[in-house]
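Worked Example 4.2. Consider the chain below.
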Amino acid sequence: MDILLQILTLLGAVTLFLFGLSLLSGGLQKVAGDGLRSFLASMTSNPFKQIITGIGVTAVIQSSTATTIMVVSFVNAGLLVLGQAVGVIMGAHIGTTITSWIMAVFGFSFNMADFAYPLILVGYVLMQNKKNQRTRDLGSIIIGFALFFIGFAQLRATAQVLITPERLGFLTSWTQWGAGSVAIFLIIGIILTVCFQSSAATMAIIMILITTGVIPFRLAAAMILGENIGTTIAANIAATAGNINAKRTAISHTIMNTFGVAWVLCIFPLFLKLVGGAVTLFGLPDPNTADLTDTANADAIQTSLLYSVCTMHTLFNVVNTLILVWFIPTIVTLCCKIFPSKEGGSEEVHLKYITGGPLSTAELSLDAAKQEIIHFGEVCYQGFGHIREAINETDTEKLEPILSKLVKYEEITDKIEFEIATFLNEVSKGEISSISATRIKAMYKIIGEMESLGDSGEAISRIAGRAVAHKAGLTQEMKHSLNRLLDKVEAAYVAMNENLKVPYRQLKDISNAQNAEYNINETRNQLREAHIANIENDGSHYLAGVYYMDTVAELEKMGDFMINISEAIVKENA
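Applying the procedure from the previous section yields the following C-alpha cells:
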C-alpha cells in the first residue's frame, strides 16, 4: 500500500511540475505577447538573427515546444516564411537548454520549495487585481514558478525512495548491452517526451535517474538524444490542422533533430569524452568514470553528473545548430519535397491562416486573424471582377454562369465571415487585454462590411437577371457610364486592401480610401443627373434606366462599405 501511495505521489509530483511549467510558460507568453510579435516581426534573412530570436523567445517563455508551435502558427498565418522559421527553431533548440540548467542549479543545489509558498501568496494577491490584466498575468507567472519547483522538489523526494538501483534492477540489467543499451534508452527518451509533451519533464527524470545511480552517464546521454527527437512530435501534431507551409515547418524540426542524433551516434564515445572534458575544466570529476559509491566525493560526483547532463544537452544543440545553419536552404528544399505544393485544378476558396484554434495568446491569435482578413479582402476583390464581367457581357448565355459566380461569391463571403467571427469569439473567451478587445470589435466590423460587399455582388446579379428576364438590357451609353463608376469602385478596393495590409498600429492616414469614396460619390451624382436629363429627352429606355440606376446605387453602397472598413482599421490601431 505504501508503494502504491508513493507511485501516486510520484505521478502527482510530475503533474504538478508540468502544471507549474505550463502556468509559468502561459503567463510569460501573455505578458510578452505583444513584444514577441514585434520581436518575430523584425526578422530578417540573417540566420544569425533568426537563431538569436529563437534563443530569446524560448528563454523568455521557458518552452521550446511552445516556441516551435508558435513558429508553426506564424508560418501558417503568413507572418514568417519557411526559411526564417527554420532559423528560429534552431535557436529554440539552444534556448530550451536553459530550463535544464535552472533545474540543475536551483533544483538540486538549493531547496527552492522553501520559498515557493510565500511566492504563491504573492502570486495569488496579484491575480486578484481585476483591473489590470498584466498584473494578473504576473501573478500567474509567480504561481507557476512556485508550483514548478514544488513539483520538482516532491519529484526528487519521492524518486529517491522509488527510483533506486534495487527497485529498478531491470533498468540496470539493460545497461550491459553496449550499442543495444544506447538504442533502448534513446527510445525511452522519445517515449517519455511524447508522453509528457515536455522536454523539461524528461530532463528532470534523467537527472534523477543519473544522480540515484540507476543509469550511467552514457545512457543518460542516449535518453537526451531521444528527448530531442520526442520533442518534435508536438509541433507535427500542431501542424496537422495548418496549411502546407506549417507542415513543412514542423517537419523541419524533425529533420534537424534526427540529423543531429544520427551524427552524434556515429561518434558517440568521442562526443561523451568531449562532454566529460568540458565538465572537468570546472574541476569536477569525469562523468564517464564517475562512481556514486565513492562516498568521499559523493557531492562532487553528483554535481558532475548533473552538469554533464546539462552540458550534453547544450553542446548537442549548439554544435548541431552550428552545422545546420549553413544548410537552411537545403532543409527548406527537402521540406518542400516532402510536402510538395498541389499543382493544377481549381481550389475552393477557404480559410488559409486560422485553420486551427486560437494561439497561445490573444495578440498572436489576432495577428493570424488579421492575415485571414487580408485574404478576405482579396476574395472580395475577386468577386468584384465578376461584377464588371456581368455588366459588360452582352451574350445572355454567357451571362448566366457569371451571375452564378456572383451568387457563389456571396455564399463564400458569408462562410468566411462566419468562420472568422467564430475564431474571434473563441479568442474573446480567454483573458484578453482592453487593446485586444478593441481589435476584436474592429475586426467584427471589418468582416461584417466585407460580407456586405458580397451581398452587393449578389444584388447586382439579381438586377442583371431581372433586366434579362424583362428584355431591358443596358444601352452602350449606360455600360460606358457604369464602367466609369466601376473604375472608381476598383480604386476603392485597391485602397481598402492596401490599408488592410499595413502592419498593426502603423496605419494613421486613410486619405487614399477617403479620396476613393469621394470620387465614387461624385461620379454617382454625375451619372444620376445625366440619367435624369436623358429621361426628360428620351424615355424609350425607361425600364433599362431603372435597372441601370439600381446598379449605380448598389455600386455606391459598396464604396460606403469600403470606407467603413478603412475607418475600422484606424480604430483597431488606436
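Residues 2-338 form one domain. Confidence is low (pLDDT under 50) at residues 344-348. Compare this with Example 4.1 before moving on.
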